[in-house]
Amino acid sequence: MTETPGGPQAATDSPAPVPLHRGNLFLVGLPGAGKSTLGRQLARRLRKPFVDADTELERRLGVSIPTIFEIEGEAGFRDREEGVLADLTVLANIVLSTGGGAVLRPNNRRRLRDHGTVIYLHAEPVTLWARLRHARNRPLLQTADPLARLAELYQQRDAFYRETATYIVESDRSEVMRLVRTFDPTDVPDHDLEP
Fold first, then answer.
1. Exposed site from 20, 24, 111, 156, fewest CB < 10 Å?
2. Cα distance between residue 24 and residue 10, in whole Å
3. What pLDDT, on a 0 to 100 scale, did the predictor assign at position 10?
């Protein structure tokens, strides 16, 4: 686990729990990093509601993400994603799984940093490909060489994930849980939230 320079300086072996900013834990990372799977587990551990931004987008539009990509292209999808993230990041006391490309837009990076504690679930492209090789619902990986595409996405996005993150942790369940044990699961009362 690595703390980013702008993140809190609390040591993981500290007996005092580390508070979550606004009571929120936001997960970022490439497709296959485990944002949804680990997010559900973290939400249970922290006793907070889990929200998956991609699922919320599909619910609002009534169609799947591959359909949105097919009809509106990636730019149209990113516009809609930005709107959903604007709504979700102002909530308090949640665990939020973002889409892999959420960090591409500066407004999204700012909202994530400003409204929660952000964990970058880091994984190398080869690890991600091993997890995703049978997935058919990943529009950006429907190419002749999905591993090369993952390497390209990693190259494009890694710096954005790092810029946004409070903590960087390998997307291994035990590593993530070790970090989460340091967080204070206490909800932030509404009257303590900044407007």
1. 156
2. 17
3. 37
